[in-house]
C-alpha cells in the first residue's frame, strides 16, 4: 500500500480531462518509479485500494485513495469513469515483435504438425526466407494497412507500447521499406512504437554460400543508410548456430554503435554460443529468448543494464523449452515478457496469453508477471520514462479490467478477455 495521495489540480491543465473513480485497486503505482525491477523486488506490485486516477492532456496528473479525494472544482470537459469492482494498471509494454510482415506461414504450421521442426523448415529454405519472399512482393501500403490492423488488435488486448523489428527484407531496399512502414505506423497509430533494425536475421539465398558478403553489405551499406535516415533506435542480430556467430554479432553491433543504434539481440534460442556475453559487452538494452541459458550467462547479466526478455508464446508454438524464469529471477536478475509476434514462430500478439503462460509454464507469480510485462517491458524498449508504471507525468496508458476477484485472475482465466477498456 502506498499512503500518500497525489493532489489533483485540474486548474493547471486545459485539455481533455478524465477521472477514473472507485477503482477496486490501482496497480503498479510508483511515486518515484525505478527504471526496472529485479529479483525479489519483482514480487512487489505497489497498489492503492479504492482509488482514483486523474488524467489530463494524455498524461497522469494525480491519483490517490477515494477517502482522500481532493474533489473537483472544475467539471468542464471532464469525463468521469466509474471503475467500481475493476482494477486499473499500466498497459502492457511488448518489447519484442516482428509484426510488420506479408502473408502468413500457415503451410509451415501444418508441416510442423506432420513432424518437421522449425529448424528443419528453415534449413529447407522456408522460415524467415519464406517471409522475405512474400515481403519483397508486397507493397508498402499493403504492409502498412495489415500492420495497422494488427496494432488495433493488440491495443484492444491491452498493449500500449510496442517494439517492431525489420528483418524480412534482407536487402537494403526491402529493409528500408520495412523501417519506413514502422515509422509510418508510429505517426498514424495511437500506440507508442519503437523500431529495431534486424537486417542480421538470416542470410538471403544469394548469400547462402557467402555469409561474409552479406555481413559486409550490412556493415557497409544497410547500417549506414538506416543510421543516416534515422529509421531505427535499436539494432538486433539473430546470434545462433547456422545464423550469425558471436564474431559476426560483434562486428554488426559495433557498426550499429557508430550510428547510435542500441543493441537488443536474439540470443540463446536453441544454443548457448556466447550471445549473452557479446551483447552485454556492447551494452545491449535487452537479450531476448534465453530458452537455454548457462550459469555463466547469469553471472554476466548480473549488475549489467541489460534486460533479459522471455518469449513464452514462441516456446508454446514451436514446442521449445520455456525460458527458465525462476532461475533468472531467483538469481536476482530482472526479467521482461514479450510476445515475439511474427508469422513463423509466434503468430500471436496477445500479451494476456503470454502472461498466463508465464504463470503456468514458467512458475512466475502474478505480481512478477505484471511487473515483467509493464515496467520491465518499458525499460526493454527505452520507454521507462513514459510507460510501465502509474506515476505522475507518465503517459496515461492504462488498462481497466472487468470486474474480477484479484489481479491474478487475469492470468488464471487464460484465454478469457478480462480487459474492459484501454486508455491510451
Ligand atoms: O524471434 N528467431 C528468430 N526470429 C524470430 C522468428 C522469425 C520467423 O520465424 O519468421 C523469433 O522467433
Ligand atoms: Fe523474435
Radius of gyration: 21 Å
Overall SS class = alpha/beta
CATH superfamily heading of the largest domain: Metal-dependent hydrolases
Q: In sequence order, what are the helices and strands, one letter per element?
A: EEEEEEHHHHEHEHEHEHEHEHHEHHHEHE
Q: CATH topology of the largest domain, which one?
A: TIM Barrel
Kindly report the average pLDDT value.
95
What small molecules accompany the polymer chains? N-(iminomethyl)-L-glutamic acid, fe (iii) ion
The figure for the number of domains is: 2
Largest sheet: spatial strand order: 6-7-8-9-10-11-12-13
Which ranges are low-confidence, i.e. pLDDT below 50, for 5 or more consecutive residues? Answer: 1-13
Percentage of residues assigned to helices: 25-40%
Name the beta content range.
15-25%
- What is the tally of helical segments? 15
Named CATH architecture of the largest domain: Alpha-Beta Barrel
Shape from CA axes? globular
Biggest sheet architecture: 8 strands, parallel
Distance between the termini: 25 Å
CATH class of the largest domain: Alpha Beta
Number of strands: 15
Amino acid at each position: 500500500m502506498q499512503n500518500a495521495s497525489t493532489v489533483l489540480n485540474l486548474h493547471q491543465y486545459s485539455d481533455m480531462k478524465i477521472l477514473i473513480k472507485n477503482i477496486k485497486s490501482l496497480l503498479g503505482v510508483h511515486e518515484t518509479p525505478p527504471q526496472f525491477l529485479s529479483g525479489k523486488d519483482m514480487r512487489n506490485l505497489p497498489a492503492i485500494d479504492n482509488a482514483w486516477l486523474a488524467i489530463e492532456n494524455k498524461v497522469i496528473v494525480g491519483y490517490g485513495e477515494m477517502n482522500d479525494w481532493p474533489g473537483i472544482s472544475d467539471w468542464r470537459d471532464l469525463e468521469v469513469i466509474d471503475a467500481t469492482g475493476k482494477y486499473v494498471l499500466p498497459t502492457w509494454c511488448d518489447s519484442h515483435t516482428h509484426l510488420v510482415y506479408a502473408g502468413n506461414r500457415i503451410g509451415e504450421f501444418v508441416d510442423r504438425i506432420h513432424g518437421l521442426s522449425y529448424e528443419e523448415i528453415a534449413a529447407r529454405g522456408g522460415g524467415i526466407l519464406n517471409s522475405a519472399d512474400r515481403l519483397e512482393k508486397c507493397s508498402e501500403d499493403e504492409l502498412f494497412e495489415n500492420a495497422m490492423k494488427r496494432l488495433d488488435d493488440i491495443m484492444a488486448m491491452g498493449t500500449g507500447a510496442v517494439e517492431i523489428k525489420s528483418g524480412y527484407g534482407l536487402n537494403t531496399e526491402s529493409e528500408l521499406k520495412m523501417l519506413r512502414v514502422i515509422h509510418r505506423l508510429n505517426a498514424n497509430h495511437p500506440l507508442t512504437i519503437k523500431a529495431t533494425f534486424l537486417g542480421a536475421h538470416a542470410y538471403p539465398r544469394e548469400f547462402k554460400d557467402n555469409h561474409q558478403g552479406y555481413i559486409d553489405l550490412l556493415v557497409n551499406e544497410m547500417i549506414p543508410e538506416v543510421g543516416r535516415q534515422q529509421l531505427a533506435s535499436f539494432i538486433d542480430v539473430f546470434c545462433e548456430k547456422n545464423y550469425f556467430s558471436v564474431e559476426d554479432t560483434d562486428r554488426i553491433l559495433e557498426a550499429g554503435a557508430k550510428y547510435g543504434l542500441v543493441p537488443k539481440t536474439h540470443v540463446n534460442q536453441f544454443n548457448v554460443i556466447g550471445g549473452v556475453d557479446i551483447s552485454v559487452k556492447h551494452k545491449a538494452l535487452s537479450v531476448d529468448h534465453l530458452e537455454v541459458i548457462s550459469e555463466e550467462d547469469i553471472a554476466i547479466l548480473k549488475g549489467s543494464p541489460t534486460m533479459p526478455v522471455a518469449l513464452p508464446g514462441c516456446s508454446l508454438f514451436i514446442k521449445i523449452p520455456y525460458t527458465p524464469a525462476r532461475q533468472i529471477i531467483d538469481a536476482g536478475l530482472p526479467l521482461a515478457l514479450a510476445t515475439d509476434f511474427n508469422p513463423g514462430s509466434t503468430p500471436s500478439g496477445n500479451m494476456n496469453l503470454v502472461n498466463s503462460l508465464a504463470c503456468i509454464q514458467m512458475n512466475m507469480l502474478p505480481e512478477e508477471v505484471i511487473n515483467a510485462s509493464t515496467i520491465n517491458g518499458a525499460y526493454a524498449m527505452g520507454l521507462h520514462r513514459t510507460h510501465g508504471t502509474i506515476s505522475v507525468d507518465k503517459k496515461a496508458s492504462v488498462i481497466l479490467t472487468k470486474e474480477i476477484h484479484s489481479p491474478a485472475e487475469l492470468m488464471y482465466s487464460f484465454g478469457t478477455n478480462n480487459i474492459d477498456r484501454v486508455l491510451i
